[in-house]
Amino acid sequence: MSQELMLKYGCNPNQKPSRIFMQDGSELPIEVLNGRPGYINFLDAFNSWQLVRELKEATGLPAAASFKHVSPAGAAVAVPMSDTLKKIYFVDDLELSPIATAYARARGADRMSSYGDWVALSDVCDKETATLLAREVSDGIIAPGYTDEALAILKTKRKGSYNVVKIDPDYRPAPVEHKDVFGVTFEQGRNELKIDEALLQNIVTENKELPEDAKRDLIISLIALKYTQSNSVCYAKDGQAIGIGAGQQSRIHCTRLAGNKADVWYLRQHPKVLGLKFKEGIRRPDRDNTIDVYISDEYMDVLADGAWEQFFAEKPEPLTREEKRAWLDTMTGVSLGSDAFFPFGDNIERARKSGVQYVAEPGGSIRDDNVIETCNKYGMAMAFIGLRLFHH
User: Fold this and answer.
1) Exactly one of 41, 47, 56, 68 is catalytic; which is it?
2) Rounded (5°) CA angle 72-75-78
3) Orientation angle between helical segments 321-328 and 251-267, nearest 10 degrees
4) Pairwise CA distance, residues 31 & 50, whole Å
5) Which of 163, 231, 261, 324 is catalytic?
6) Strand residues in 16-162 grouped as ranges (E)
7) 190 phi and psi angles, rounded to 5 deg
8) Using CA of residue 215, residue 220, residue 225, residue 227, what is the dihedral sign?
9) What is the distance in angstroms between the CA of the first residue and the CA of the last residue of the chain?
10) Helices vs strands, H then E, count in the chain
11) Burial of 175 per CB tally in 10 Å (0-12, 13-18, 19+)
12) Is 392 noted as a catalytic residue in this protein?
């Protein structure tokens, strides 16, 4: 380890010089084992590492995150997967360890957004996780350690330039953090409040039932939001985020964006999608893009243009709007977290369309009564956590 690390450039190639260093003169808590990570890589690395470390502490399960542009595309813990999920995540041909399962879930939540991601693991990277990563398009990884086999596999990725960072799991930063903007230094206390089941005790709806799985998923959504650019909303189910809406100026736009991603996640499990017959040699990213078009309303234009022949071995039948809505109506048990209060009940109305039954948000809006009333209309359970989770 060293006290500073020179970087190729900052956020953009014209932003030089660029480095990371410890102001107190101590050693950096990281070691670069391979590659040359950049400025944005390290922003993703340090944010994603905090996320997975907190997920592991809160749930006791190995955790992983897939990060892009300083927000998670996916986050998950090591809950066993169904055969359907393994298929839509393209891991049905692999042996998966617990930490590999967590990453497969995190990557699979929104595979289009995860293209070229930064990976964070709460546990030592093993051969199974490295084997999975070796065939995905990714920029780098941060983990507390690597087995010899895993490191050897990762060093072959991207012609030997794949970024591999090892972090000291015992490192804890100072309680006060600083940031320079336009030559002015900002200072604030770090957001160290613990997110766990204790935050979910103030259930304000008529339905007071929060099953253990829902508590776990709400915690996942809230910890993910703690490291997502605000405004942000996260849908979670089955031990993973399934839709994250980040960086929107309006909360309803966050809810719609995240809800649309959750819908795509579930529609990928539709029998028609599972039955798509691709041509031999079509790469996984091209399959992801094609499936996204197939699920969207754009597919009718693709049919008309005859473009389907580029990817499919045989012409697929369209997935109609009626079929999509009928399938989405079977999605239940989804949890929803928000980094700040919902100002209107319209967010709940949108969330319901994506199977949301459990909600956690700070509360404190002058229209809380309207939000609670909307939850009661659909039998949802909602907890006011009294904790805002803005991240900038």
Assistant:
1) 68
2) 165
3) 100
4) 16
5) 231
6) 19-21, 30-34, 63-68, 71-77, 117-121, 138-143
7) -65, 150
8) positive
9) 28
10) 13, 15
11) exposed
12) yes
Instruction: Please compute, for residue 94, the number of CA atoms within 13 A of its CA located in the half-sphere on the CB side.
Output: 23
- Catalytic choice (69, 155, 353, 391): 69
Contacting residues for 306 by C-beta, under 8 A, at least 6 apart: none
pLDDT tens digits, one per residue of 29-50: 999 999 999 999 999 999 999 9
Query: Would you state the structure tokens that stand for residue 137, as one six-digit string?
Result: 């398009």
Q: Is the dihedral of CA 50, 56, 57, 58 positive or negative?
A: positive
* pLDDT at residue 105, rounded to an integer: 98
The answer to whether 260 is a known catalytic residue is: no
Tokens encoding 338: 């928000």
Assess whether 391 carries a catalytic annotation. no
**Residue 356 corresponds to which amino acid?**
V
Question: pTM (2 decimals)?
Answer: 0.95
**Residue 302: pLDDT band by 50, 70, 90 thresholds?**
low
Percentage of the chain exceeding pLDDT 70:
98
Catalytic: 231?
yes
Alpha-carbon distance values, 231 to 16, 67, 350, 392 (Å): 30, 17, 17, 9
